[in-house]
Write a structure and sequence with these properties.
Order of helices and strands: HEHEHEHEHEHEHEHEHHEH
Number of strands: 9
CATH superfamily of the largest domain: Aspartate/ornithine carbamoyltransferase
Distance between the termini: 7 Å
Helix content: 25-40%
Structural class: alpha/beta
Radius of gyration: 19 Å
Number of domains: 2
CATH class of the largest domain: Alpha Beta
Strand order of the largest sheet: 7-6-5-8-9
CATH architecture of the largest domain: 3-Layer(aba) Sandwich
Low-confidence stretches: none
Shape: globular
Bound molecules: phosphoric acid mono(formamide)ester, norvaline
Mean pLDDT: 98
Oligomer: single chain
Number of helices: 11
């Protein structure tokens, strides 16, 4: 039994096979030839944070494959009233076939997985967001082919998305330049483990120079709402806009996991411009997670 808590839980070859299958499933959906590969399967979805894309993509994906998804918020479960994560995992995993969790603490996710009889998927923690990276790597592949050996620029907070890009740099073999203000770096141990391919710089211009892909994310992640104004001041020089994109490679793509705050981390117009693939990234959550669930239920 396998879990997907970070990108490091699958080998590079397994990640490639999931993305190949995601591309195939996308075509099957378009052609109307998709099989009901999840018939009678049930996905438990535990959400302790908000979501638009993650909830809709997992729930719609499960329905399209003939299965069923149960949305569980802390307001409705005993988890919200103090039943332990371990006990909750033991109970839920006797009833469903696969579980996805969006929560704050990565340790909570690990504790759930350690007590689960069925595969557990990380649907975002404070530390990682690996499902988004499956979708992002599928999207890059569809637009530009292999990302191996390319340079990717991360501009902004060294957050959960940035840390998943560090794991992706190792798994897909690309170079990552992270431009962030002092004090907002990704985890130091993770940087040290990947120092052969990941570098932190202060200047967004230095990071994006010649990059094949430029990525950013909100300056204030879920759980950091109180720091929002302070972060807006600190990150004000880190907006990704048309001028910054002009320093990247001529055919550079722009990605953002969304939700985006136009006029903050991204200019008002970049999301709708020719370099942006953000809507494909959002759509590909559906296909990539269907392929991931098929993989986890087949091993
Ligand atoms: N990108 C992403 O995970 O979006 P949601 O928060 O809407 O799920
Ligand atoms: N870094 C953001 C990603 C949202 C999908 C957050 O954690 O809120």
């Amino acid at each position: 039994m396998r879990h997907f808590l970070t990108l490091m839980d699958l080998s590079p070859a397994e990640l490639k096979s999931v993305i190949d299958r995601a591309i195939e499933m996308k075509a099957e959906r378009l052609a109307g030839t998709a099989r009901e590969s999840m018939k009678n399967k049930v996905l438990g979805m535990i959400f302790e944070k908000s979501s638009t894309r993650t909830r809709v993509s997992f729930e719609a994906g499960m329905a399209q494959l003939g299965g069923h998804a149960i949305f569980l918020s802390p307001n409705d479960t005993q988890l919200g009233r103090g039943e332990s994560v371990e006990d909750t995992a033991k109970v839920i995993s006797r009833m469903v076939d696969i579980v996805m969790i969006r929560t704050y603490s990565h340790q909570m996710l690990e504790a759930f997985a350690a007590n689960s009889r069925v595969p557990v998927i990380n649907a975002l923690t404070d530390d990682y967001h690996p499902c988004q990276l499956l979708s992002d790597m599928q999207t890059y592949h569809e637009h530009r082919g292999s990302i191996q050996g390319k340079t990717v620029a991360w501009v902004g907070d060294g957050n959960n998305m940035c840390q998943s890009f560090i794991n992706a740099a190792r798994q897909w073999d690309f170079e990552l330049k992270v431009a962030c203000p002092e004090g907002f770096e990704p985890n130091q141990a993770l940087l040290d483990e990947n120092s052969d391919r990941v570098a932190v710089v202060r200047s967004p211009k230095a990071a994006v120079a010649g990059a094949a892909l430029v990525v950013t994310d909100t300056w204030a992640s879920m759980g950091q709402d109180k720091e929002k104004q302070q972060r807006q001041r600190i990150f004000s020089g880190y907006q990704v806009n048309e001028e910054l994109m002009s320093l990247a490679a001529a055919d550079a793509l722009f990605m953002h996991c969304l939700p985006a705050y136009r006029g903050m981390e991204v200019s008002e117009t970049l999301l709708d411009g020719p370099s942006s693939v953000v809507w494909d990234e959002a759509e590909n959550r559906l296909h990539a997670q269907k392929a991931l669930m098929e993989f986890l239920l087949s091993v």
